[in-house]
Amino acid sequence: xxxxxxxxxxxxxxxxxxxxxxxxxxxxxxxKQGNSLSPTPLSPTEVDAALKRVTMSKWLEIDAELDxxxxxxxxxxxxxxxxxxxxxxxxxxEERERKRDLRLH
Length: 105
Hints:
Blueprint: H1 2-8, H2 11-34, H3 44-52, H4 56-67, H5 71-82, H6 86-104
Helix pairs in contact: 4-5, 5-6
């Protein structure tokens, strides 16, 4: 272990590690500032277009999950069918629940 530390603490090795670190920071730093982990939210028209592409059989499957009180499963089915993000899918499912509740009452 001591021999290993002696080898790593040599000035040439430390300098090389420092240079590699700086190069990594320089190349990754530019990407990080302009790029976040979350995708850009879709516009309402893009969400509506994605929802219109969902087939009737898929909506029936989603409604069955909602009837069984499995909202998370319904959101997952909608995400799989449309490619929408979690937030947009959740909002669409909640809107569908509200519309269905109004029809049933």
